[in-house]
Amino acid sequence: MEPAITEQSSVVSEVSNTEVAKPEIGVGTHFFNQRYLYAFATQGELINHVRTQTLDARRLSEILALWQTQQPFVQQLMAAELGVADQSVLGDLPVELGPRLREIAADPLMAKSFLHVPITFALVEIDTLVAPQRYVNEDYAAKLKEKYKASTGLEQLLEICLSPVREMAPIQHLEVGNNAHVFSSPNLDIRHLGAFLKRLSSDDLQFAELGGIPAAAIISFVGYGANAINAIRYNGRLVLNNGFHRVYALRSLGVTKIPIVVQHVRNPQLEFPGLVCGLPREYLLGAPRPVLMKDFVDDSLCIALRAKDRVKVVTVQAAVGSHDVPA
Questions:
Q1: What is the CA 172 to chain-centroid distance, rounded?
Q2: For residues 182 and 174, what is the distance between their CA atoms, to the nearest angstrom?
Q3: In which order are the strands placed within the sheet that holds 135-137?
Q4: Half-sphere exposure for 2 (CA within 13 Å, toward CB)
């Protein structure tokens, strides 16, 4: 006897023969427009950047073909401009700006930011600055250009380039337990600024939530780096150390000279960072023709990409250990 086909089994059969629609779920959809100095990147660096940092991996073969086409021109450029990075000139700022420069130099934020090496203020050519990175956030640069387009006089540039304070993106905070605090910002300059022993005051006692009798406190700072555009000088070479996007925005507006803080280094092994924005000291100081700021305004050397958007996270955690040991 054949089994009866029930209504329920008929429905199951009908569902199983019908393809179930799957929802579309976007992954990694947020991006910013990036200007990438691809012609100066190594092939491996270029492949890794496009594949892991952008939404343009499908264009990789096309981009590599363009890169190959540009290499003879890059080699000619490097040969023609051999040693140009070592010929930077430090120009004097007008004497009438002296009072404002002295105010800036006396600001505690400025003094604490440049404790370790001698500094001077100078007027420098943007094009001769060694650039320590490979890309521009074009969306951010566009906002800066709009903000600065009517502020390119020398007195205004003094505030843009040297003022110790600036408008900064807000920082978000979340305590995640185990004495851990997480801070995030869309500004990738967010950083840990050190932890220090703090002399207790009566106001501090309100934070002693676990009771007891507090005897010491450690304060840990999270924030942003120094505002002033600064470069490290060694053997006639100026390596941009802070303010890359402001410098790019001003150069895009036609500004060729800007006032900056110059840090004078005598022993690079001790006084120059091992890495600046991911590029090693040996390249920044030793390459016969390193990447210069002027390269970023040369359309033939750059390519437009959609870079994956990101925020930077800083986690600060107190690791506490308590043990009985022999006296």
A1: 18
A2: 5
A3: 135-137, 31-36, 303-308
A4: 3
Give residue 11's pLDDT.
52
Query: How does strand 217-223 pair with strand 257-264?
Result: unpaired
For the record, the structure tokens of 127 come out as: 């094009």
The two tokens of residue 43 are 């092939």
Backbone φ, ψ for residue 135 (5° rounding): -140, 160
Give the CB-side neighbour count of residue 134, counting CA atoms within 13 A: 19
Tokens of 70: 């540009």
| Exposure class string for 114-125: b at 16+ Cβ within 10 A, else e | beebebebbbbb
Backbone angles phi, psi at 245, to 5 degrees: -70, -35
Instruction: Please name each of the domains of the chain with its CATH number.
Output: 85-166+230-292 (3.90.1530.10), 172-225 (no CATH)
What are the CA-CA distances from residue 293 to residues 24, 153, 163 (Å)? 42, 20, 22
CB 113 within 8 A of CB 221: no
* Token pair 């096309």: residue: 62
Kindly report, residue by residue over 169-214, the tens digit of the pLDDT.
Answer: 899 999 998 889 999 999 888 999 999 998 888 888 787 777 788 8
Strand (E) or helix (H) holding 258: strand 257-264
